[in-house]
Write a structure and sequence with these properties.
Pfam families: ABC_tran (PF00005). The chain has 220 residues and is of the alpha/beta class. Helices cover 32% and strands 27% of the residues. The chain has a single domain, classed as Rossmann fold (3-Layer(aba) Sandwich). It binds adenosine-5'-triphosphate.
């Protein structure tokens, strides 16, 4: 499914990702755990094509991601919920959710079907749909960012530190949403980064530890 080989990324002339390799099979949930600054966000942003790689290979099935611009990666079914959420304050929650569908040029019926599915997985979004993006708490913004990633993430979703800063009740709701996702979309792959592995409970099938831009051990 997603296969990364010897990925190297430098930022401002410094090596940040050092020859990372990762093989994610369809339907698996992988957690990447590492301290602040270990390279988690850089990895997800380079998978999305938002940061150029210095060298390495990256394929989603038969598609060579290294040759695909960021918007094409979205079209291939990669959804991304960034750590800082990026909720547009002048748009409603529904508009925020539907925004990435514009890249895919989906019919309004397809957008409606995807939204219905996302609301089944994250029902907390239903009463918020008409609310302004500016009126959301940080935790609610994380739920919207999850929903938005699911609107386009038909193959894989990348969730950057989803549990950071979530109150316990919201963290539980987020975990429950991921549980429903497993059942409703068994082929979807999920990558979660976290700095605190205790927040992950039993969600991932596999946990990898990243330190200074390299994977150091597989915990299980
Ligand atoms: N635009 C940039 N220019 C230069 N260095 C950067 C840039 N963005 C990030 N870095 C550096 O890259 C390293 C990895 O950062 P990254 O954000 O990927 O870490 P992280 O594991 O996601 O941690 P955090 O939880 O703090 O976001 C850090 O040393 C950071 O200072």
């Amino acid at each position: 499914m997603l296969k990364i080989e010897n990925l190297c990324v430098s930022l401002a002339g410094s090596p940040i990702l050092r020859s990372l390799s990762l093989d994610i099979h369809a339907g698996t949930t992988i957690a990447i755990v590492g301290r602040n600054g270990a390279g988690k966000t850089t990895l997800l942003r380079s998978i999305m094509g938002l940061i150029p790689a210095t060298s390495g290979e990256m394929h989603l099935d038969e598609h060579n991601l290294m040759r695909s611009a960021a918007h094409l990666r979205t079209s291939l079914g990669i959804g991304y919920a960034p750590e800082d959420r990026v909720i547009f304050p002048t748009l409603s929650v529904q508009e925020n959710l539907e925004l990435p569908c514009e890249i895919l040029e989906l019919s309004s019926q397809e957008v409606e079907e995807r939204l219905a599915h996302v609301l089944d997985v994250v029902p907390q979004l239903k009463p918020m749909l008409a609310r302004s993006g500016a009126a959301l708490s940080g935790g609610q913004g994380k739920m919207v960012a999850l929903g938005r990633a699911l609107m386009v993430g038909s193959a894989i979703v990348l969730l950057d530190e989803p549990f950071q800063g979530l109150a316990p009740a919201l963290a539980l709701q987020y975990s429950e949403a991921l549980g429903r996702l497993r059942t409703s979309r068994p082929d979807l792959s999920v990558v979660i980064t976290e700095s605190n592995s205790a927040l992950l409970t039993d969600i991932p099938n596999q946990i990898l530890t990243i330190e200074r831009g390299s994977f150091v051990e597989a915990i299980h």
